[in-house]
Design goal:
The complex is a heterodimer of chains A (about 425) and B (about 140). Chain A has about 425 residues and is mainly alpha-helical. Chain A has helices spanning about 15-35, 60-75, 80, 95-115, 120, 125-130, 150-160, 170-190, 195-200, 205-210, 230-235, 240-260, 260-270, 275-305, 310-315, 320-340, 345, 375-405, 405-430, and strands spanning about 10, 50-55, 215-220, 225. Chain A has 19 helices and 4 strands. Chain A is globular, with a radius of gyration of 22 Å. Chain B is about 0% helix and about 40% strand. Chain B has a 5-stranded mixed sheet with strand order 3-2-5-1-8, with no helix packed on it. In chain B, strand 9 and strand 10 (about 130-140) form a beta hairpin. The two termini of chain B are about 15 Å apart. Classes of the chains: A mainly alpha (about 425), B mainly beta (about 140). The interface of A and B includes residues 3, 8, 13, 366 and 368 of A. Strand 1 (about 10) of chain A pairs antiparallel with strand 9 of chain B.
């Protein structure tokens, strides 16, 4: 049994049955209370409200510098490789922490609270600006490609972390970062800087979607303002493939969680032993989530009394999956951020694993400051239940907006889907 | 907390011992043992390494070049002993999370102890060949 993981090697203990049952009961209670008590007119559907004094954000240049430094530390792993320098075998390098903890988890999760700071951090925008790549926007957005290319890149990235056995290898990460950089530079040169990032840099829509949960946003002057909670998520532009991107968010982290459970291993047998088998399981999990979502859309549209196409319903409710996907990811990865994130302290002293000690911290060891599992379990269930609650609220509001009289009946399907997704999350957590 | 210790007994069965059949003999009794110091760190107060004989009913994991035969998960209760039989590998064993490295040589048996004071599921793998051997599940 070979387990692939970009980083870590520690995972949380399964949540005990009583905690799981409590979580499930809370989910059911929330869902049915929502049906009876929630408002009867849409509340979040008329776009963000920009309120409060605008706060200038002067640290954009600083964030861009950090982003660029991060990219250089990952691509820079190729320098010792190409110069034939020997790495110290027991030293970690900066690449896995930067890619799998900072870029993949910390930046997007923080976006849900501080707004889309990735727009400032994005190192590829900075590089393109420095070299004048893609100054002319050549394609109007939204393009028919929409979020399809970003969804494919998202799956490829998840494959690299969860399936490929080389995700922790600094040289592989260096090559991958170099390849991705060239890919984005070509895309930006061909389509324009902002267009290229919006269409092909999966981190751009990923952070944009998650940041739409945040009550903080930017006004037209680029100042930080309150914009009314949940209003921005309901106003997310329905680019082609939005539903797929949201499904991929949930499907990839579901695969990661499920692959570690005994019931998933019992179902899938020895498929998980080979790279091809794990690739199949990753794609299958995404497909199962897509199928579940589309089934809910079929029922919702047929019971709403409207003659909308299935695809239109799928697009209209896609944003309600975002908080659920985020809750999945946070509950699955937050201890990893706390623990493995500390590796940053060590690797900054020796980013290439060459035995350096720039800041005297190279021998720092991870402190496991959470010595008992109960707070971890309770937080995990709280995230899952919270994500479910937000999803239910958004779906209810969207059903009122779109279906009016038919909202009551049509939202049963979406609520059923959300109970199913949340149950799956709890089932994964319980091992 | 010293009582909550995982004892990983790594004893090699020597391929080099040849046709005498020595490889089939019970290894715990006669095998030479090596005491390894845990790395000095401030956050690990229990740094004593002790040698414990593995009881005969302990789970056994045989390691060869690219496979590990034995249970996938070793669940650790109070003072439970895990016996790992190393077949023919020159490598380091890496206990993730605890970040312990144990040097192994084919034909040389080891008994290793570390205190399981952090809950979670920890991967144990060979360092160079990156073979996942088993998980240690520390409840608590």
């Amino acid at each position: 049994m070979i387990l692939a993981h970009g980083i870590g090697g520690r995972s949380d203990l399964p949540i005990p049955l009583p905690v799981m049952v409590t979580g499930a009961a809370a989910v059911l209670a929330i869902t049915f209370l929502a049906l009876g008590l929630l408002w009867t007119r849409p509340r979040f559907q008329d776009g963000p409200r920009y309120e409060g004094p605008g706060l200038p954000v002067p640290i954009g240049g600083f964030l861009a510098g950090l982003g660029l430094a991060g990219l250089l530390l990952v691509v820079g792993q190729l320098v010792p490789l190409l110069m034939g320098m020997e790495r110290v075998s027991t030293r970690a390098t900066a690449a896995p922490v930067i890619v799998w903890v900072v870029a993949w988890l910390v930046i997007p999760f923080a976006s849900a609270f501080v707004g889309n700071w990735y727009a400032d951090i994005n190192p590829w925008r900075t590089v393109a600006r420095l070299f004048g790549v893609g100054n002319q926007e050549r394609i109007g957005l939204p393009h028919t490609l929409g979020l399809w290319p970003a969804s494919v890149v998202f799956i490829a990235f998840a494959w690299f972390e969860l399936v490929s056995p080389r995700a922790g290898d600094p040289n592989t990460l260096g090559w991958a970062a170099l390849g991705y950089s060239l890919f984005l530079l070509v895309a930006m040169a061909a389509t324009g800087r902002e267009t290229g990032l919006a269409l092909f840099d999966f981190l751009t829509p990923y952070n944009r979607l998650i940041s739409a949960i945040s009550p903080l946003g930017r006004n037209r002057q680029g100042e930080l303002v309150w914009r009314g909670w949940l209003r921005s998520l309901a106003a997310v532009p329905e680019w082609p493939g939005l539903w797929l991107f949201a499904v991929v968010m949930i499907g990839t982290v579901s695969y990661d969680g499920a692959a570690g459970t005994t019931w998933f291993r019992a179902i899938t047998g020895n498929l998980g032993d080979t790279t091809i088998g794990r690739t199949f399981l990753l794609l299958a999990t995404v497909n199962v989530v897509a199928l579940a979502y589309y089934s809910a859309c079929v029922i919702a549209s047929s019971s709403s009394g409207r003659t909308w196409t299935l695809h239109r319903v799928a697009q209209r409710f896609a944003h309600t999956l975002v908080p659920i996907g985020l809750a999945y990811a946070i509950s699955h990865y937050f201890t990893l951020i706390f623990f493995e994130g500390q590796q940053l302290i060590a690797v900054l002293s020796d980013p290439f694993g060459l035995g350096w000690d720039l800041f005297g911290t190279a021998d720092y060891r991870v402190r496991f400051f959470i010595r008992t599992s109960t707070p971890v379990w309770l937080s995990q269930v709280a995230f899952i239940v919270g994500g479910h609650l937000v999803g239910v609220v958004l779906a209810h509001d969207r059903a009122l907006q779109d279906f009016g009289e038919g909202a009551d009946r049509s939202q049963y399907a979406m609520l059923g889907l959300m109970i199913a997704l949340t149950s799956l999350a709890l089932l994964i957590l319980s091992g | 907390m010293t009582s909550r210790a995982i004892v990983v007994l790594l004893s090699a069965f020597a391929v080099a011992c040849g046709p005498t059949g020595a490889a089939d003999e019970p290894t715990s009794a006669a095998a030479p043992s090596t005491t390894l110091e845990r790395p000095d760190t401030t956050e690990w107060p229990d740094t004593t390494t002790t040698i414990t004989a593995a009881p005969p009913e302990a789970p056994r994991i045989e390691i060869s070049n690219d496979t590990a035969e034995g249970p996938d998960v070793v669940r650790v209760a109070l003072g439970e002993t895990v016996e790992v039989v190393l077949a023919d590998v020159d490598d380091e064993i890496h206990v993730h999370g605890y970040d312990l490295f144990f040097e192994l040589r084919a034909g040389v048996p080891y008994q290793l102890t570390f205190t399981a004071d952090v809950p979670g599921i920890f991967e144990v793998e060979t360092h160079d060949t990156r073979v996942h051997l088993f998980d240690v599940e520390v409840s608590g």
